[in-house]
Amino acid sequence: MSLEKVISISGKPGLYKLITQTRGGFVAESLMDNKRISVSMQNNVSVLSEIAIYTLTEEVPLRQVFQSIKEKENGEKTSVKPKDSKDKLEEYFFNVLPDYDEDRVYASDIKKVIQWYNLLQEHNMLDALEVTEAENVSDEKE
Question: In angstroms, rounded to a whole number, what is the distance separating the alpha carbons of residues 31 and 40?
Answer without folding.
Answer: 19
